[in-house]
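Listing S7. Sequence submitted for prediction.
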Amino acid sequence: MQIAILGGTGDIGQGLALRLAADTPHAVAIGSRDAEKAETKAEEYTTELDSRGLDAAVEGAENEVVAAEADVVVLAVPPYHIGDTVEAIADELDPGDVLVSPATGMKRDDEGFHYHRPGAGSVTRIAADAAPEGVAVVGAFHNLAAARLANLDADLGIDTLVIGDDEDAKATVADIAEGIEGLRALDAGGVANAPEIEALTPLLINVAEHNDGLHDLGIEFQ
């Protein structure tokens, strides 16, 4: 499949681009509002893959360009840009395409990180409300430590929770996720369950900050 990662120059975008290119047969492209930035980062990712003897490459271009060619578009952008990003690429999407939202709203105070639930109920719901007709939205990759994901020497051994109201789209994203070595996809129901999943991210960050040796922790359900 053709997978586009919008915001692929950021932390979680980098991790997903490297892992998907390294572990799966899918074609991976990263997008940015700045085409030159996307191209430069894509070259860096390809160099990293090549240094490991991997016959894989990552392409880079503007968000609209990579979205137009993709079957699956990952919205690896800050939560407050989700709606605007979907609207900006809406004309480039075709019925049957799948949008994936890994973003979660957070705020920080002196006590730590806290879930910042948007008025729509969840960031995944914002994406779903903005998506064109015929384009399904699936939530996934919310609770992954970006640094651990981007470190190809690190064993994952963790789970990602997948949510969506379109069962076929959810299965597609689960298959893509499980193509990443050491990552297991678990079905967590529909988009209505997104707040519970998104709220896990600030919890994990708080635990990581207060416990030695858990800097890049993840979740494994047993």
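Caption to Listing S7: primary sequence and predicted structure tokens for the chain studied. The beta strands are 2-6, 27-32, 58-62, 72-75, 98-101, 106-109, 112-115, 136-139, 158-164, 183-187. The two ends are 31 Å apart (CA to CA).
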